[in-house]
Automatic annotation (TrEMBL):
Enzyme Commission no: 5.4.99.25
Catalytic activity: a uridine in mRNA = a pseudouridine in mRNA; uridine(55) in tRNA = pseudouridine(55) in tRNA; a uridine in tRNA = a pseudouridine in tRNA
Organism: Molossus molossus
Its job: Pseudouridine synthase that catalyzes pseudouridylation of mRNAs and tRNAs. Mediates pseudouridylation of mRNAs with the consensus sequence 5'-GUUCNANNC-3', harboring a stem-loop structure. Constitutes the major pseudouridine synthase acting on mRNAs. Also catalyzes pseudouridylation of some tRNAs, including synthesis of pseudouridine(55) from uracil-55, in the psi GC loop of a subset of tRNAs. Promotes the processing of pri-let-7 microRNAs (pri-miRNAs) independently of its RNA pseudouridylate synthase activity.
Subcellular location: Cytoplasm, Cytosol; Nucleus
Family matches, as InterPro entries: PsdUridine_synth_cat_dom_sf, PsdUridine_synth_N, tRNA_psdUridine_synth_TruB
GO biological process, alphabetically ordered: mRNA processing; mRNA pseudouridine synthesis; tRNA modification
Biased composition (Low complexity): 16-38
Keywords, in A-Z order: Acetylation, Cytoplasm, Isomerase, mRNA processing, Nucleus, tRNA processing
Record-stated family: Belongs to the pseudouridine synthase TruB family.
Protein name according to UniProt: Pseudouridylate synthase TRUB1
A single cellular component GO annotation: nucleus
EC top class, as a word: isomerase
Domain Pseudouridine synthase II N-terminal: start-end pairs: 99-248
Length: 343
């Protein structure tokens, strides 16, 4: 499961316009004589006004927040699910609002988690998508469960077993003693199954096709802290805080080799990304509503450095947002797997 740092930005066209004014209700006997058809029309009109207000509020959201990604969907699939829920809540798009001025909902995620991993996924909405670069260059924290004695081609439990070695003589002291070797500024070889590219295609895609792929050279990465939380052979649990471009799968595999055995990742959870923590800031799916996200954006604004505070939009910016298709890195040093993708 890679800690490869990528961000994805997508857009959806929202059609908004002046909300239809509710029909006059009249007074006195006229009110009492209102026909069922008129009442139904009034109810429909009020519902439309409500949806228009929600759409306007959705388009006004800007900033960075976090969601809780479960195991299963990819980060991109989760982003689409989030976007669809917000559009549905706002009643967008609506056939009744055709021919009206369109605006674009811009939403993106940063710091991709593999489908088998879960935890904090940082999301930018509106002008907040432009903040992902600075926000995601900070540290990340993970809890990883490794398995000794078994290696796979993907370096995690989703892959094919490529090697098995004994582990029964490995003690907790052996494991704790080896961790210091992987702390600080170290060199790390990325996994073959990764978002790194060769000739414009991901290595993982080439591997799945059965094509021969050479490992990328080792590159400098940073591990701020690394500790053993639990050891029940063959399983061990690590708490890792690292910088950008770091792969937990490679770490676990390298630890196995250093112990004269082998290892792969069974479970991976990102508990912190930048200032966002899983317990305090990550919204579960039942909180993916316009109001909950608005509250989260307000709550999380105090986490941002002053220089990243969102400025009030200029008048012309409030009329129509445009998705900028650009490639930018998420780390100070550009990496092939550290890009914002647009779709």
């Amino acid at each position: 499961m890679a800690a490869a740092e990528t961000a994805l930005v997508s857009s959806s066209s929202l059609e908004t316009g002046p909300a239809p004014a509710p029909e006059s209700t009249g007074t006195g006997a006229a009110t009492a004589a209102t026909s069922p058809a008129t009442a139904a029309a009034r109810t429909g009109s009020e519902a439309m006004v409500s949806k228009a207000a929600l759409a306007t509020k959705l388009l006004s959201l800007s900033g960075v927040f976090a969601v809780h990604k479960p195991k299963g969907p990819t980060s991109a699939e989760l982003l689409n699910r989030l976007k669809e829920k917000l559009l549905a809540e706002a009643g967008m798009p609506s056939p009744e609002w055709t021919k009206r001025k369109k605006q674009t909902l811009k939403i993106g995620h940063g710091g991709t988690l593999d489908s088998a991993a879960g935890g904090v996924l940082v999301v930018g909405i509106g002008r907040g998508t432009k903040m992902l670069t600075s926000m995601l260059s900070g540290s990340k924290r993970y809890v990883a469960v490794g398995e000794l004695g078994r290696a796979t081609d993907t370096l995690d439990s989703t892959g094919k077993v490529t090697e098995e070695k004994p582990y029964d003589k490995i003690t907790q002291e052996d494991l704790e003693g080896i961790l210091q070797k992987f702390t600080g500024n170290i060199m790390q070889v990325p996994p073959l199954y990764s978002a790194l590219k060769k000739d414009g295609q991901r290595l993982s895609t080439l591997m799945k096709r059965g094509e021969a792929v050479e490992a990328k050279p080792a590159r400098p990465v940073t591990v701020y802290s690394l500790s053993l939380q639990k050891f029940q052979p063959p399983f061990f649990t690590l708490d890792v805080e690292c910088g950008g471009g770091f792969y937990i799968r490679s770490l676990v595999s390298d630890i196995g080799k250093a112990l004269s055995s082998c290892a792969n990742v069974l479970e991976l959870t990102r508990t912190k990304q930048g200032p966002f923590t899983l317990e305090e800031h990550a919204l579960p799916e039942d909180k993916w509503t316009i109001d909950d996200i608005a509250q989260s954006l307000e709550h999380c604004s105090c986490l941002l450095p002053a220089e990243l505070a969102l400025k009030k939009p200029k008048p012309e910016e409030s009329h129509e947002q445009v998705l900028s298709c650009e490639y930018i890195t998420l780390d100070e040093v550009k990496r092939e797997d550290d890009v914002i993708k647009t779709c």
